Amino acid sequence: MFEILEADIVVLQETKIQRKDLRDDMVLVPGWDCYFSLPRVKKGYSGVVIYTRNATCAPIRAEEGITGVLCPPNSSVPFRDLPEERQIGGYPTLEQLSRSNITTEALGSEQEEDSMQPTPDAKIDASTLDSEGRCVILEFPAFVLIGVYCPAYRDESRDSFRLDFLNALDSRVRNLTKMGKSVIVTGDINISKQAIDSAHAIESIRKAVTSAEEFISSPARRVFNQLLSDGVVIGEREEGREDPVLFDVCRKFHPGRTGMYTCWDQKLNARPGNFGSRIDYVLCGLDMQGWFSDANIQEGLMGSDHCPVYVVFKDSVRHLGSETSVRDILNPPGIFKNGERQQEYSGSCILPASGRRLPEFDLDKRISIRDMFSRKPTPSSLKPETGAATMTTTHRTGAERSIPTIDDPHNLPQKVIPVTSKKPQPSPRKRSQPPSVTPFKRSKLDTPITSGASKRGQKTLKGFFKPKGVDDGEYAIPHLASAGSEASHFSSGTSGLSEETQGTSHTDSWGSSDFENDNSNKRQRGERDQSAADASPTADSVVDPIVSKEDWSKLFTKKRVPSCDGHQEPCISLTTKKPGMNHGRLFWICSRPLGPSGGKEKGTQWRCSTFIWASDWNPSPASQQ
């Protein structure tokens, strides 16, 4: 991806990823460093990341969030409370935040007491504003880079949050500019600056649904336009926003270009017809207007509903009153001189906020699987103790209910049978089974069982088909008597050898009778089955397989896809997501993309007006063939 973009700084928005889902190929990109802002609460939501190429640039400071109330990694001190040499600065003041609905409880105590009283209508806390992973700020010697993902307009419930975020961004940019720092704001602003930047706005104005003045005067667009030198502001500017501080780089290179959109609705397949909006920008400080040689969009690069926006720096720029190589001021002092590298990139250049500093990606602290298997074995002095513990655990696991714990391995019994001094209580499941099942379990062997466990086997099908003349006692008493410890699992006594024998004799008294009754039932069932098999089938019960196959084929065959009226091409099926009585219903529409007008057209190459509810579509039987 980075080779395709051919960039030195890459800013991505709406990553929609959690920290636990980060992988090596996202963080440990060879030759690149990265800085993440991930949502604190919502999962798979929002997110911003900035990648910097180590060979050409390296930031000197990095922060997350706009207000400065978040804390650096492994620290409990907010960014805004750090010493001046460790902070980027320009944090919104309480007075600036009080213009919106942002509370001031999390902004420290460096302000005046009388100015720390929150406004009566304050609703959003500053930490909440920065908890959605919407901003990463990097400082280079040349400028401060703000990578941002502004909230989009969805419904009225998010209007307040969206406007508060824009106000905080406006305040941070203006404060940094007053400090004498150049600022670059780039990312998904989610605002079309003017009507020329939105196909929806152009169509609405053409149809007189809205006017250009109404479009420009929306609250969020008004805040945004007051930041820009070419922004259109109707009426007087607000206090503190009298002067613009940024300019739109792409619009500067393409002032009258129409259709320069960066986002399209994928659900409507609006990209082929270029019915979209321009909501992604690279905005730079007014003192940087001569720094760039090119700026444009890459509308041909697919893979997202947005397309990249890029700017190209000149090799040398005017900085602090003199011409300077841009690489000299994109790295810490001493790394480059006159555009030539003086020091190699090292681990000391990695900032604490870098993704490479995350514990799970720190290569110095990682233990590979190979290292885990190359450890030295346990010393020989601990071998006897280890062997005894292992043996004890094995006995508990294999025969937990029948063999007690053996502490001394030298006192093990010679045979398995004497080990069980007390028979275990049968499990509830065994206790609940009827006694008639037991004789069948005991009749599974044809030869007497020896005391060795190796000759114990699973019951075979032969045991269910023994001849009737064989003595039942052959399947019970001799086998159980010779089975040793196995007899304890089937006897009804609780302890002692005498009780075990009594339980076995009692079982034999009813086991034989049960066996005969079962054989009698089997004979009766066999006679009924034989008589049913001898009966000849009637003519009505005969089923034609060919007819049956045709009936099933008709039942499971999908309906033919309808063709659109304008092009006679197969339609596509969509589902209604709009709340209401039709929510969840399927419908068919023309498969072609929307045209530049954004509406359904007739007699053109774009989407026609075909619309069919799936429940109403009933093709003729002939068309189904």
From TrEMBL:
Which residues are marked as site: Important for catalytic activity?
Answer: D280
Domain GRF-type residue range list = 564-617
Name the Gene3D superfamilies on file.
Endonuclease/exonuclease/phosphatase
Question: Which coenzymes or cofactors are required?
Answer: Mg(2+); Mn(2+)
What residues sit in the active site? Answer: Y149, D188, H306
Task: Indicate which residues the UniProt annotation says bind Mg(2+).
Answer: E14, D188, N190, D305, H306
Chloroplast as a keyword of this entry, yes or no, is no
* Positions of the record's site feature: Interaction with DNA substrate: H306
Q: Where is this site: Transition state stabilizer?
A: N190
Q: Low complexity bias located where?
A: 385-396
Its keywords, alphabetically, are:
Hydrolase, Magnesium, Manganese, Metal-binding, Nucleus, Zinc, Zinc-finger
GO biological process terms held by the UniProt record: base-excision repair
**Pfam families xrefs:** Exo_endo_phos
- Its protein name is DNA-(apurinic or apyrimidinic site) endonuclease 2
Its lineage opens with: Eukaryota, Fungi, Dikarya, Ascomycota, Pezizomycotina
